[in-house]
Task: inverse folding
């Protein structure tokens, strides 16, 4: 902030020129945007915020700053795991710092696009920010401050193609993973389902070796689809290894079901950072099997499953019913596997025939065309 030094006033982020007044609300720091220091209203606003009665009052009702405070005190927020609260809390603070002065009712998709696109250089961060903002808006609906969730009309940013995991990467990840992380990988690989559905899967949904459940895609307004996934023997073997401590297949270290996907995602990021895994990734890059900078997500296992089912000879409609995809998506996910299958099927025919157009080329009998 240069030479300016006023009690409870700080520049956030440093060097941005944006001033905020800090005060305690329910034992938490809350930041309220101030006018620029050379604005004629600065002194009056600073005095107003410094007044004891204002400090006790907290953020103005109906603003995003007020909504953040109320959301942090809600049952939904308290039900989240500690790690989830820490991760999402950083984004709540970002929203509060930049937009706390805005009214909840005034948030529109057009402004959300601008807010989201400030993080366009880091699409993963932008998407998490949008998800947390969506949670805030759902809380606003619960409180009667809104009738709709504007984030439903703002798509997430593309992070890039979800690549299937190469065999060497799968092998080393299975070796290096903790038992529960390993089971999560196997569940994704053998079921071909999104991570959000994998953490929901329950033992009670298994019938005669088939996992039956209803997919839920939250980003499309809670669209559902009934699926039935035949359980591969490898999946059943892995499922029998850890103790059954929860109604769900996957669970926290405490034995409680995962409330969100964040913990699994964090475990996968830590796994990908292990030395043994990095060594395999470097080798795959050196062999030009993958591009430098490639990343592999849980969703990539869905593509692995799709390719496996294609190689098993199932048609697009059958695969789509198992994975909960359209036939068009099945073809998109499996295009690389199909190309390899075509090459393998054509190999014998290509190498066993005569290339008569090439001078000196040998036929099946070993003699050249000219001799």
Result:
């Amino acid at each position: 902030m240069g030479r300016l030094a006023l009690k409870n006033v700080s520049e956030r982020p440093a060097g941005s020129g944006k001033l905020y007044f800090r005060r305690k609300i329910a034992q938490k720091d809350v930041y309220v945007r101030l006018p620029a220091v050379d604005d004629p209203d600065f002194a009056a606003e600073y005095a107003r915020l410094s007044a004891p009665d204002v400090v006790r009052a907290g953020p103005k009702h109906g603003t995003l700053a007020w909504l953040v405070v109320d959301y942090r005190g809600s049952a939904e927020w308290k039900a989240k795991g500690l790690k989830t609260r820490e991760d999402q809390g950083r984004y709540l603070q970002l929203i509060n710092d930049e937009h706390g002065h805005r009214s909840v009712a005034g948030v529109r998709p057009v402004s959300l696009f601008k807010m989201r696109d400030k993080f366009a250089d880091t699409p993963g961060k932008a998407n998490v920010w949008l998800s947390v903002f969506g949670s805030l808006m759902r809380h606003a609906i619960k409180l009667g401050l809104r009738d709709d969730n504007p984030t439903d009309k703002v798509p997430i940013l593309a992070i890039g193609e979800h690549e299937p995991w190469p065999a060497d990467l799968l092998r080393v990840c299975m070796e290096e993973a903790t038992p529960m992380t390993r089971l999560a990988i196997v569940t994704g690989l053998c079921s071909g389902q999104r991570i959000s559905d994998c953490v929901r899967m329950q033992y009670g949904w298994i019938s005669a070796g088939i996992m039956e459940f209803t997919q839920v895609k939250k980003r499309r307004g809670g669209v559902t689809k009934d699926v039935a996934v035949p359980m591969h023997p490898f999946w059943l073997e892995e499922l029998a290894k850890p103790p059954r401590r929860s109604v769900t297949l996957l669970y926290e270290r405490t034995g409680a079901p995962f409330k969100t996907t964040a913990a699994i995602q964090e475990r996968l990021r830590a796994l990908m950072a292990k030395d043994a895994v990095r060594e395999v990734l470097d080798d795959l890059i050196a062999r030009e099997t993958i591009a430098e900078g490639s990343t592999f997500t849980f969703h990539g296992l869905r593509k692995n499953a799709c390719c496996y089912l294609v190689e098993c000879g199932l048609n697009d409609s059958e695969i789509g019913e198992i994975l909960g995809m359209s036939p068009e998506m099945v073809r998109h996910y499996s295009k690389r596997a199909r190309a390899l299958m075509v090459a393998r099927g054509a190999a014998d025919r290509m190498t066993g025939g005569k290339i008569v157009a090439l001078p000196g080329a040998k036929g099946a009998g070993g003699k050249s065309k000219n001799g």
